[in-house]
Known about the structure:
By secondary structure, the chain is mainly β. It has a single domain, classed as Porin (Beta Barrel), CATH 2.40.160. The chain is built from four helices and 20 strands. The protein has helices spanning 5-14, 120-123, 158-161, 215-218; strands at 23-28, 31-46, 53-54, 57-67, 72-83, 93-104, 108-116, 147-156, 166-173, 188-195, 202-212, 227-239, 242-252, 256-257, 260-261, 264-274, 280-294, 298-313, 318-327, 342-350. A 16-stranded antiparallel barrel has the order 2-4-5-6-7-8-9-10-11-12-13-16-17-18-19-20. It has a two-stranded antiparallel ribbon with strand order 14-15.
Amino acid sequence: MKKSTLALMVLGFLASSTSSQAAEIYNKDGNKLNVYGKVKAMHYLSDDNSKDGDQTYVRFGFKGETQINDQLTGYGQWEAEFSGNKDESSSTTKTRYAFAGLKYANVGSFDYGRSLGALYDVEAWTDMFPEFGGDSSAKTDNFMTKRASGLATLRSTDFFGAIDGLNMTLQYQGKNEGRDVSKQNGDGFGSALTYDFGGSDFQLGGAYTTSDRTDAQQATTRGNGDRADAWATGVKYDANNLYVASMYSETRNMTPISGGFANKTQNFEAVIQYQFDFGLRPSLGYVQQKGKDIENIGDADLVKYIDVGATYYFNKNMSAFVDYKINQLDDNNPLGIKNDDIVALGMVYQF
Length: 351
């Protein structure tokens, strides 16, 4: 069946990052500057009063590059998020990305700043739910599992031009102290490999990180080892309007819990979505994180839910969504983690 114009636009959008949909505002003498952003007008429905209510926010950023010579390009990116659900005297702003780097031809790139950790090269494949998802081992400012500070990252496409479809990430993270214990980290290293078999619709990936833990982290009641380690492996298929992905990972002395950190976690995520030609994209997913050998507890689920949702794309800039998080945690779980269901309703405008 011939795809409609809308379906082609939507599929192109889903295959691209937010910044690649940016509006070009300057392009002269080898210098380019794009701006991008989105408004997510969203409301949560839940018996958990801390989650129920308005969740609206705005994100805005720029992505620029400069042509230094025939082979070398400089680039930078910054993105911030602004709360839209608070009164004006208590509105908050946070920096999501802020990095700069150099890219040499089609060989690879190197950048430094606040960006994405190496483990997220694989974890991102299942972080596709309309609102929820991607929250087992991937946590912001938790070593190199998601967005984090002080990252020096070397990325190579097609393994320095030698093997089509084999992409590599090598990463170093500098020490970050003087913040909440759960957000600290010592010096660490990470790596990731993804391979699409030379351009196929099927992709495999694996990632590993290891870091020193700070003195404050080692002094916590739970999870007091001197190193934090994680590994992840994943698979995805993205073709014929169908998206299917799954991810399994494990962490050691890394995942924050009440009283410190889990000695070990086992994490599984899966998602399946289908893009209809008329704009509808239903989504079904599952996320589970099990803590192992927790002091005075033993094994316990930390995250466990089924996710049912759908997004309708009016065009590449405007969409509406609903996402239902069906919590599967026990009512009397030993760590006192809230287990209320949440329904998210919203509309998104982005450019």
